[in-house]
C-alpha cells in the first residue's frame, strides 16, 4: 500500500467518523436538553458492563483478523485471507450466542454488584441482543480493514449512527413521561436498532464485494486449527487490554457515583453528575478521536503489511507521521475546550461539568495519543505492551479517583485529574516502547515545538477575545471563536513549516489540485 493509499484509507474512515461524531454531537445536545442528565447517567452506567461482555465475546479477534488478512493479502494469498475471515466468523457467531444466553440467565443475580443504581438493570437487558450483532459485524469489519477496504466499515458506521440517533431520540422522548428509567430504555433501544442496521449494511456490501473478488493463492493454505491458534495468539493480548480498560470503566461507573455521595451528594445528584461528566465533558473531549480512531484503525493493517514485506523505512515513516498528525489535530481542539469549557457545558445543560472539562483539556493530547500508539504497537505485533501499560494506568486512576472525587471542593474535577494522570502514564510508556521497537528518534521540533508555537498563538487570541468579543448568540460566538482560532493555528503552522505542501498533496481529492 502506498503512502497516499494509507492516507486515503484513513480519510475514508475519517469522513464517516466525522459525520457520525457531528451527528452524535447534535444527538447529545438534544439528549442532555430534552431527556436530561439523570436519564443519560443511567444509560452510561450500562456501557462498562456491556463493553466488558463484548470483549469476552470478540476476544480481540477483529484486530487479529485485520492483521492476519493484511499480511496474507500483501503476500498474494487471497484464499488464505478469506479462510481466516470464515474461521473468525464461525468463532464469533458461537461466542456471541453463548455470551448473550449466559447474560440473560445470570444477570439478574449480578445486577446488584454491577450497577450502582437499580434502575440500570432493565436498560442493560435491552442491550444484550446487541452483543451478538456486534460480534458478527466485527468479523466483517476486521476482514475489510485487513484488505485496506475502508468503505464497508465507513458505510456501516454511517447507517448505524443515523438509526441510533433517530430511533433513540424518538423512543426516549416517547417513553420519558413514564419515568426517567424509561427515557434511558429508549436510548438503549436506539443503540440496538443502530447495530442491526449497521450489520445489514456491511452484509450487503460483502455480498457485492464477494462477486468481484479475485481469490489468488501463492502459498500453501493453513488449516482451520492453525488459523484459530494464530487468531487467539494475537487476539488474547488485545482482549486482556480491553478487559483492563472496560474493567476500569466498570469500576469508574460504580466508584464515581459512590465517591460523589461521599462528597455530600444524594444518589440522584451523583447519577446526574456522572451523566454530565460522560454526556458533556467526555463527549466534548472525545470529538477529535474521530480522527485518531480512524488513524489507529488504519495503522494496524498498514504497519502489518509493511512488516510482512520487511519495509523498515515505511514502518518508521507511518509511525512518526501518525504521531505527528495526532498532535496536530488534537491540540487546537484542546485549547478551545480549555478556554470555553463553561460556555460549552451550558449548551449541554451540564454546568457542573465545566471544571472537569477544562481539567481534562490539560492532558487531552495524551488521551488522543493512546489510541494512535496502541494501534502502532498492535501493528508491530506487540499488542501485549499497551495492555501492561493500561493496567498500571488504570490502577493509578482508580486510586486518584477514590481520594480526590470525595473531596467536596473538587468532586468531578478530582475525577478528571484521575483520568489525566492515567492518560499521561499510558501514552508516555507507549511512546517509549515504540521508540525502542521501531528504532527511530522522534523529531521533537517538527512533532512538538512547531505545533506548540501555533497553539500558543491560538491560545493568546482565545484569551483576549473570550470576554471581549460579542457576536450575538452564545452558539454563534463559540463557532466564530473556533473558526478564528483554527485559522490562526493553521496559518502559523504553514509559516513555521509545521504543515507543508507535501502534507496536502497526500490528501485524496484535495491533493490533485496542489501544484508541485
What does it look like?
- The protein is an all-alpha fold and 516 residues long.
- It folds into two domains: 3-442, no CATH class; 444-516, no CATH class.
- It is 82% helix and 0% strand.
- The longest helix is centred in the middle third of the chain and has 39 residues, at 224-262.
- The protein is globular and about 65 Å long.
Q: Per the principal axes of the C-alpha atoms, what is the gross shape?
A: globular
Task: Give the end-to-end Cα distance, rounded to a whole number of Å.
Answer: 22 Å
Helical proportion, percent range: over 70%
* Poorly predicted regions: 507-513
Please, what is the average pLDDT? 80
Sequence of secondary-structure elements: HHHHHHHHHHHHHHHHHHH
Gyration radius from CA atoms, angstroms: 23 Å
Main sheet summary: none
SS strand fraction: under 5%
Count of alpha/pi helices: 19
**Annotation, overall tally of beta strands:** 0
Q: What oligomeric assembly is this protein in?
A: single chain
* Number of separate structural domains: 2
What structural category characterises the helix and strand content?
mainly alpha
Amino acid at each position: 500500500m502506498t503512502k497516499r493509499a494509507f492516507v486515503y484509507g484513513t480519510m475514508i474512515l475519517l469522513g464517516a467518523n466525522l459525520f457520525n461524531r457531528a451527528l452524535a454531537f447534535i444527538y447529545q445536545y438534544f439528549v442532555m436538553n430534552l431527556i436530561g442528565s439523570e436519564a443519560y447517567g443511567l444509560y452510561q452506567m450500562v456501557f462498562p458492563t456491556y463493553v466488558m461482555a463484548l470483549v469476552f465475546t470478540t476476544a480481540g479477534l477483529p484486530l487479529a483478523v485485520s492483521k492476519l488478512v493484511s499480511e496474507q493479502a500483501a503476500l498474494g494469498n487471497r484464499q488464505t485471507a478469506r479462510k481466516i475471515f470464515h474461521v473468525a466468523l464461525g468463532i464469533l457467531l458461537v461466542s456471541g450466542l453463548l455470551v448473550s444466553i449466559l447474560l440473560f440467565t445470570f444477570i439478574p443475580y449480578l445486577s446488584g454488584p454491577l450497577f450502582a443504581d437499580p434502575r440500570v438493570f432493565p436498560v442493560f437487558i435491552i442491550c444484550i441482543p446487541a452483543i451478538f450483532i456486534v460480534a458478527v459485524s466485527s468479523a466483517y469489519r476486521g476482514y475489510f480493514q485487513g484488505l485496506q477496504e475502508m468503505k464497508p466499515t465507513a458505510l456501516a458506521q454511517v447507517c448505524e449512527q443515523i438509526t441510533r440517533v433517530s430511533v433513540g431520540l424518538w423512543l426516549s422522548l416517547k417513553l420519558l413521561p413514564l419515568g426517567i428509567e424509561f427515557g434511558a430504555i429508549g436510548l438503549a433501544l436506539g443503540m440496538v436498532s443502530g447495530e442491526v442496521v449497521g450489520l445489514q449494511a456491511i452484509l450487503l456490501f460483502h455480498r457485492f464485494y464477494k462477486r468481484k473478488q479475485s481469490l489468488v493463492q501463492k502459498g500453501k493454505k493453513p488449516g482451520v486449527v492453525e488459523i484459530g491458534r494464530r487468531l487467539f495468539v494475537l487476539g488474547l493480548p488485545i482482549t486482556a487490554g480491553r478487559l483492563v480498560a472496560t474493567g476500569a470503566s466498570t469500576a469508574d461507573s460504580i466508584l464515581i457515583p459512590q465517591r460523589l455521595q461521599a462528597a455530600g451528594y444524594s444518589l440522584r445528584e451523583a447519577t446526574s453528575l456522572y451523566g454530565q461528566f460522560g454526556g458533556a465533558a467526555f463527549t466534548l473531549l472525545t470529538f477529535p478521536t474521530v480522527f485518531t480512531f480512524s488513524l489507529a484503525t488504519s495503522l494496524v493493517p498498514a504497519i502489518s503489511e509493511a512488516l510482512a514485506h520487511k519495509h523498515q523505512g515505511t514502518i518508521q515513516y507511518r509511525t512518526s507521521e501518525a504521531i505527528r498528525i495526532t498532535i496536530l489535530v488534537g491540540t487546537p481542539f484542546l485549547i478551545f475546550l480549555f478556554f470555553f469549557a463553561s460556555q460549552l457545558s451550558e449548551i449541554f445543560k451540564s454546568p457542573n461539568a465545566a471544571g472537569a472539562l477544562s481539567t481534562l483539556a490539560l492532558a487531552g493530547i495524551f488521551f488522543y495519543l493512546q489510541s494512535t500508539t496502541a494501534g502502532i504497537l498492535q501493528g508491530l505485533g506487540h499488542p501485549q505492551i499497551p495492555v501492561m501499560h493500561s493496567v498500571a494506568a488504570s490502577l493509578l486512576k482508580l486510586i486518584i479517583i477514590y481520594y480526590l472525587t470525595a473531596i467536596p471542593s473538587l468532586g468531578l474535577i478530582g475525577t478528571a485529574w484521575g483520568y489525566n494522570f492515567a492518560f499521561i502514564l499510558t501514552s508516555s510508556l507507549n511512546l517509549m516502547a515504540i521508540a525502542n521497537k521501531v528504532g527511530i528518534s522522534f523529531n521533537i521540533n517538527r512533532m512538538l515545538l512547531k505545533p506548540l508555537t501555533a497553539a500558543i498563538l491560538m491560545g493568546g487570541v482565545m484569551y483576549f477575545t473570550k470576554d471581549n468579543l460579542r457576536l450575538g448568540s452564545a452558539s454563534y460566538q463559540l463557532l466564530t471563536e473556533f473558526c478564528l482560532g483554527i485559522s490562526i493555528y493553521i496559518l502559523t503552522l504553514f509559516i513555521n513549516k509545521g504543515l507543508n505542501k507535501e502534507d496536502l498533496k497526500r490528501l485524496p481529492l484535495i491533493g490533485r489540485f496542489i501544484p508541485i
